[in-house]
Amino acid sequence: MIENFTNSTNYARKFFKDDKNLLEIKDYAISNKVPIITDEVLSFMLFLANNKDYKKGLEIGTAIGYSTLYLSKFLEMTTIEIDENRYLVAKENFEKYNKNINLINDDALNVIENLNDNFDFIFIDAAKGQYKRFFDLCYGKLNKGGLIFIDNILFRSYVGSNEYPKKFKTIVNRLDEFITYLSDNYNFTLIPFGDGVGLVKREEK
């Protein structure tokens, strides 16, 4: 069954159309072991972000700006990165591709509440143990009809499993509690592909 899922994932990746201009960034991430969004999850995210009613996007966890540059094709982006080295690489990448992206080097937990804008699409892909705190702050900045896209919410498929390294116990438990919280209180769906994607839609009313 696992082999079939892997085959299906590899098959789906064949249909992702890489932006040739961004392959250099992708290769850099792979070579330097910088975690970036997988092709199939990126393809799905862009499908959702390409909405005529969505104008402004927020990203929590820039890394080196790979997903940011893709999202900037459809949205006016603000993105937050806590790591200074990654921030500097992202800044260089944005300048190289002449993208007017609002890049912030800080802890998102200190920044989100003070942002002047509200957003239509929010992408969370940062410290997994802080996902609930990120979400609560982001939801307050989400426009009606807007969407929050949460990546890696199943954390290496450990969430929902009784078998995982003890060192990840806190993260796994927090994510499990977070998913239950979302399911009980929001318009939420959990999609078990990639490393798990959570979607929260804010009602129009």
Automatic annotation (TrEMBL):
One family name in Pfam for this protein: Methyltransf_3
The protein's enzyme class: transferase
Transmembrane segments: none
Binding site for Mg(2+): 125, 151-152
Binding site for S-adenosyl-L-methionine: 37, 67, 81, 107-108, 125
Catalysis performed (reactions): 5-hydroxyuridine(34) in tRNA + S-adenosyl-L-methionine = 5-methoxyuridine(34) in tRNA + S-adenosyl-L-homocysteine + H(+)
Keywords noted in UniProt: Magnesium, Metal-binding, Methyltransferase, S-adenosyl-L-methionine, Transferase, tRNA processing
SUPFAM superfamilies according to UniProt: S-adenosyl-L-methionine-dependent methyltransferases (SSF53335)
Record text on subunit structure and interactions: Homodimer.
Purpose: Catalyzes the methylation of 5-hydroxyuridine (ho5U) to form 5-methoxyuridine (mo5U) at position 34 in tRNAs.
Family: Belongs to the class I-like SAM-binding methyltransferase superfamily. Cation-dependent O-methyltransferase family.
HAMAP family attached to this UniProt entry: TrmR_methyltr
The protein, known as: tRNA 5-hydroxyuridine methyltransferase
Provenance organism: Oceanivirga miroungae
Encoding gene (name): trmR
